[in-house]
Amino acid sequence: MARPKRGEALVLTIDDLAFGGEGVGRADGYVVFVTGGIPGDRLRVRLDQARSRYGHGVIESIEEASPHRVQAPCPYFGRCGGCRLQHIAYPAQLALKSKQVADVLERLGDVAGFELRPIIGAPEIYGYRNKMEFTVAPARRPRGSAAPVAAPMASGGARPADGSGGDDAQAAIVVGLHEANRYDSVLDVERCLLQSDGMNALLDEARRFFVEQGLSAYDQAAGDGLLRFLMLREGRRTGEAMANVVTTAPAVSDLAPLTERLRARVPRTSSVVMNVNPRKASVATGVEEHLLGGRDHIREEIGGLTFQISANSFFQTNTAQADRLFALVLESTGLRGGETVFDLYSGTGAISLLLARRCRWVYGIEVAQAAVDDAARNAAANGITNCTFLAGEVRFVLPSLVASGVSADLVVADPPRAGFHPKALQALGRLAPSRIVYVSCNPGTLARDVGELVRGGGYRLEWVQPVDMFPHTPHIEAVARLDRVRP
Asked: If you average pLDDT over residues 161-171, what whole number do you get?
């Protein structure tokens, strides 16, 4: 059979799921990725891309549905770029994620002989996120129209016209999430099923405030406008909530009244801050922070400890699963009380402080100064004195520690999606701890780094434990334990 061409219709069976959440099918050996396809589906698809080795198809009809296919409850599903797996029954999501971890470790990491433990599913598959970042953008304008038009709202979510600017003003901005595969289009989201009712109330009230005050949204193409992001956080165990408005300029007087509006709607709003990001880079952090109301942080409780979390600090976004994840990490270490431990990419110190109760000393290394400051406050608040937190990139701080003669019996690492920098991995090899516990949010970089440690660093991969921190998304967390092979 000749290679299919763009625009051609094919009937194929989906037999796998790619890392981004697309179904994978084959037509006489030609690989086709299909958005919305599920293993077990038999689909009629039309190719919108046809490259030499693979193509991409869109579903025209479902000839035979997979037994794992379910109705997605979110009205934005299919358009929103967030939850791409809502149409897959949760047990099947877990099985597919576990398979992906095993496949990538064996194929990319070239490691075998390890124990793949059963994946730990989430007790809550909706409303589980304690942090969400919403983009504020100008509403799209149809050609020939002077008035902006907002994306359609969910049913039952119409916003009242209260005399604060009329329909055109209400439609001037959207507050939501990027559309699937579109960096330049933001979907106006009235209610996100991944966050709590309280956070959805904050989202609604902040949107109303922005519209009523006539505040402008940042237009990246034009380089003007004020509002960039609305970041919401909550302590699931404490009930405390935070709103962080990211702007292009320090508009304190414009945003100061927001605090009372949010507190009136959600009384446990403990922190309202504004971060200023005047740069072109589209990131929800700022070069300066202004406190609009309450404290500059909220509190959360995990593992019997209390943590302070500021706007720009990293903290696990699923509190219930973080409890399970941290317990697994502690169990994996096998600490007896006299060890020195390095906690790499330590964030606000959650893992460091839990480790500190079981060892002699912990060194936590984290690039974000705000997170390091939070970690030090968290240690003091919990009466923990055997931790040292260092600010800087692991690739620089770790070699410096090793060169100064500081050694560690154990290393716990929770790197970002990019995994270890090569220099950091080399320094880890020189440190040569007897055990490494690697917490990964990206199976691909986990496989790469573990492969390096196994092949060139003298380590054996004992086991890998997948943990589903983000139901309905393609993201997979995993904990791997590596032990140094004795000569």
From this structure: 40
Rounded-to-integer distance, Cα 472 and Cα 476, Å: 11
- pTM confidence score: 0.88
Give burial (CB, 10 Å; 0-12/13-18/19+) of 25.
Answer: buried
> How far is 365 from 362, CA to CA, in rounded Å?
10
User: Given 74, 80, 387, 441, which residue is catalytic?
Assistant: 441
Beta strands in 179-329 (DSSP E): 186-188, 227-234, 241-247, 269-276, 288-294, 297-302, 305-310
Q: Which two tokens stand for residue 287?
A: 């070069």
The Cα 172–Cα 474 span in angstroms is: 33
The DSSP secondary-structure symbol of 217 reads B
- In sequence order, the 6+-apart residues with CB closer than 8 A to the CB of 152 are 188
Burial class (CB in 10 A: 0-12, 13-18, 19+), 93: buried
> Which residue in 109, 184, 126, 203 sits closest to 459, CA to CA?
109
Q: What per-residue confidence (pLDDT) applies to 163?
A: 32
Burial of 64 (0-12, 13-18, 19+ CB in 10 A): exposed
Euclidean distance between CA atoms 39 and 252, whole angstroms: 51
Amino acid of residue 238: T
* pLDDT at res. 1: 60
CA distance 465 to 47: 37
Contact in structure between 273 and 290 (CB atoms under 8 Å): yes
In the beta sheet, which residues pair with residue 302?
305
- pLDDT surpassing 90 at residue 318: yes
Distance CA 97, CA 119 (A): 8
Cα 213 from Cα 223, distance rounded (Å): 21
d(CA 412, CA 355): 9
Amino acid at 154: A
Helix (H, G, I), strand (E, B) or coil at 38: coil
Of the chain, the end-to-end C-alpha distance in Å amounts to: 55
Spatial neighbors of 307 by CB under 8 A, at least 6 apart, are 299, 300, 301, 315, 348, 349, 350, 353, 374, 378
pLDDT at 170 > cutoff 60? no
Cα separation, 169 vs 211, in Å, equals: 6
DSSP, residue by residue, 357-402: TTSSEEEEEES-HHHHHHHHHHHHHTT--SEEEEES-HHHHHHHHH
Q: Are 32 and 45 in contact (CB under 8 A)?
A: yes
The residue type at 123: P
Alpha-carbon Rg for the chain in angstroms: 24
State yes or no: is 192 an active-site residue.
no
Cα distances from 208 to residues 132, 172, 190, 205, 211, in angstroms, run 18, 12, 11, 5, 5
